[in-house]
Design a protein that fits this description.
Length: 90
């Protein structure tokens, strides 16, 4: 854990915002990637792009569901990090 930023200064607040943005970043980006992939697969099945048919829909829905789970877990982890930092005396 890094030292506590001084939230009374603009630089300290900017540093803390950067810190919060980095928390669980791979989870949130991975979830977003799966959401985009799932949406493209579902649209591909709907419109027949690249020869996709309805057989790919379970994979598309699975990617959408797992993507949302990753996004929510990332948000939860970031919130938990913020709560811990507040308890440390921010």
């Amino acid at each position: 854990m890094t030292s506590l930023p001084d939230l009374n200064t603009e630089e300290g607040r900017a540093e803390y915002r950067r810190e919060l943005r980095r928390v669980a970043l791979p989870l949130r980006w991975g979830g977003l990637s799966l959401l985009v992939l799932g949406a493209l697969l579902a649209l591909g099945a709907r419109y027949g792009w690249l020869g996709l048919d309805n057989g790919v829909l379970p994979v598309a829905y699975g990617a959408l569901a797992f993507g949302w789970v990753l996004v929510f877990v990332g948000i939860w982890k970031r919130t938990q990090h913020h709560k811990r930092r507040l308890q440390e005396g921010l």
